Amino acid sequence: MLAMEAQAPRGVRRPAISLASIASMLAPTDSSLQNAT
Questions:
Q1: Residue of 23 and 37 predicted with greater confidence
Q2: pLDDT tens, position by position, 1-35
Q3: 23 in Cβ contact with 33 (< 8 Å)
Q4: Is the pTM of this model over 0.90?
Q5: Which one is predicted more confidently, 36 or 25?
Q6: How many C-beta neighbours within 10 Å does residue 30 have?
């Protein structure tokens, strides 16, 4: 998944998506994302 995002240009344009992906992998709990937002 990370490899695919690295190739996708939007991944570089939107670092937030990459962070969200990593965060989701580290903490699959949506509560964590809501608190961070």
A1: 23
A2: 455 555 555 545 566 777 778 777 776 666 655 66
A3: yes
A4: no
A5: 25
A6: 9
Q: What are the CA-CA distances from residue 14 to residues 19, 21 (Å)?
A: 9, 11
Rounded Cα distance between 18 and 22, Å, is 6
DSSP states of 1-36: -HHHHHHSHHHHH-HHHHHHHHHHHH---HHHHHHH
Rounded Cα gap, residues 27 and 36, in angstroms = 12
Provide the token pair at 13.
């344009």
Is the Cβ–Cβ distance between 30 and 18 less than 8 Å? no
Evaluate whether 21 touches 1 at the Cβ level (below 8 Å). yes
